[in-house]
């Protein structure tokens, strides 16, 4: 594709945009950017779109990342049909299953890896194709977790997939520079649908109050970090794991169950 004559509208693609951190990121970016909102549930995506500023400017991309073989074709088709290009990619889609390793079979492990990591590589394969996306891509942010750095009982595969995501980020930062900056945000405990069970347990909530110097966070706190990393204020930042955890990792003497972001 002749990039000099490529006049397609540019969008920021947010996976997992129908809830939690993805939802907050969509609301944060919407006033300044056109968005492609990804999720599995069409009704929830429509609700996110309606909640965003300049809602008519945004696109919806319903796609189940468990069906990993369909991701690249689905995104390629959307970009072609809408004459759209992506200049920013935020990978917020994720899943967690709390299981001891003895109960974690290969199918569970593969499903979590597909959603948390492989889906990002399939999206990037499309966005880095000059035929499909030209040379529009400039910024990538992965939503990881502080549990990429530390162990937690019952969260073996979750920790492993987030660790893999950060390793991928560092490799891509080196591979894609200077045209594309790639970073991760590592949240601590924030109230999302993934963390709802933990936040409903009074004992865990009390542990969180004790262990987080600044208290637990909000999805808007993570969205602020994402917006910064995609902006020109971070033009000399790539390959960076930005921890946003209210000081939790300053002291990791964990009591009680772990809380995924």
Describe what you observe in this structure.
The protein has a single domain (8-250), classed as 3-Layer(aba) Sandwich (Rossmann fold). Helix 1 (20-29) packs across helix 9 (219-230), helix 3 (71-81) runs parallel beside helix 4 and helix 4 runs parallel beside helix 6. It is built from 9 helices and 7 strands, in the order βαβαβαβααβαβαααβ. The protein starts with 8 loop residues before the first strand and ends in a 17-residue tail after the last strand. The protein has 261 residues and is α/β, with parallel strands linked by helices. Residues 254-258 have low confidence and may be disordered. Helix content is 40%, strand content 15%. It has helices at 20-29, 42-51, 71-81, 106-127, 130-133, 156-176, 196-199, 202-211, 219-230, and strands at residues 9-15, 35-39, 59-62, 84-91, 139-143, 181-187, 241-244. It has a 7-stranded parallel sheet, with helices on both faces.
């Amino acid at each position: 594709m002749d990039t000099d004559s490529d006049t397609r509208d540019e969008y920021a693609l947010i996976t997992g945009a129908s809830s939690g951190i993805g939802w907050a990121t969509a609301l944060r970016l919407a006033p300044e950017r056109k968005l492609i909102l990804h999720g599995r549930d069409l009704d929830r995506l429509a609700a996110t779109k309606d909640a965003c500023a300049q809602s008519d400017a945004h696109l919806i991309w319903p796609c189940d990342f468990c069906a990993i073989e369909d991701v690249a074709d689905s995104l390629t088709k959307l970009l072609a049909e809408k004459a759209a290009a992506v200049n920013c990619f935020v990978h917020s889609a994720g899943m967690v299953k709390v299981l001891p390793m003895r109960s974690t079979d290969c199918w569970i492990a593969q499903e979590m890896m597909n959603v948390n990591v492989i889906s990002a590589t399939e999206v990037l394969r499309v966005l880095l194709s000059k035929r499909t996306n030209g040379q529009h891509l400039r910024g990538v942010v992965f939503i990881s977790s502080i549990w990429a750095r530390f162990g937690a009982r019952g969260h073996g595969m979750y920790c492993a997939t987030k660790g893999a995501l950060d390793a991928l980020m560092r490799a891509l930062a080196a591979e894609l520079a200077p045209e594309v900056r790639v970073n991760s945000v590592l949240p601590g405990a924030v109230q999302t649908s993934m963390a709802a069970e933990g936040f409903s347990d009074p004992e865990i909530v009390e542990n969180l109050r004790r262990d987080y110097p600044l208290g637990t966070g909000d999805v808007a706190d993570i969205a602020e970090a994402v917006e910064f990393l995609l902006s020109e204020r971070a033009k000399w930042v790539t390959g960076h794991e930005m921890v946003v955890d209210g000081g939790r990792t300053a002291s990791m003497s964990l009591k009680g169950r772990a809380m995924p972001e």
